[in-house]
């Protein structure tokens, strides 16, 4: 709201962006909604002794949870589909809409621009190369401005420095760079040679109106700079993790986000298991609101613990699957422990 009036940003854009963020809210709140809904129903049933009658009719705790699990299946499916399809797409559109309306580039939030590593086994001329690419501005349409590349050969010797004013991606694996200035470095002698007056390198500068650069860097990889890891789809996380590993970069944060995305729909069943003990509370006097509030606090604590373990796992280099599963396992054990204690 505080951006309304800046550049071309109007209240219509603010409303549209909030609507596009709705899938993310649905995805985040689905486990808490399942928990609060189940607690409300169980507390109401307990207040009228309905669940006592069911227990007297032979309903076991195991059968009750199996029934809850079947009810939670469509909720888990909605959470999974929202997190995999609707949320990443809507969030990406929301970000692009904001950047376009404000007339800013994506990388303008970083004073140093964006640095990306690019490794190729074959640059098109049969040579393996390694590049460090600096992108001055990354635009919402995934075009790039003021790009500088430092290219090294297989022996990690600097061979090219290129600067391009603009760049557009051409599928499947090329960038069309325009207004290019290249500095080509050629080794004249080795460090061990004693010809001190002979330069170590010779440099040749060239200017080209256009240059096509073969690269593994794609708009999908650049799109990862627009969206937080927990808002990316599983497929995009797989691709970005593969890119990071191929370039020998740290992928721990994205691996944790990947496993959290895989386990998160299962948290609906975890929350339902946590709600089941509320059915065994005999409260004819009501108290439904207090129990609903308790359920809300439990749900918020689950989200906080999920975030906390993601940061701790990234700092401590814990295995990503274990880091992502630990909050769910803890609350599942808590639910079954309470059920065993009350039952």
TrEMBL record:
Transmembrane spans: 65-87, 262-281, 293-318, 324-342
Protein name: Putative permease YjgP/YjgQ family protein
GO annotation, biological process: lipopolysaccharide transport; transmembrane transport
Compartments in which it is found: Cell membrane
Membrane topology: Multi-pass membrane protein
A cellular component term, taken from the record's GO annotations: ATP-binding cassette (ABC) transporter complex
Major subcellular site: membrane
The keyword Transmembrane helix is annotated on this UniProt entry: yes
UniProtKB keywords: Cell membrane, Membrane, Transmembrane, Transmembrane helix
InterPro entries the record matches: LptG (IPR030923), LptG/LptF_permease (IPR005495)
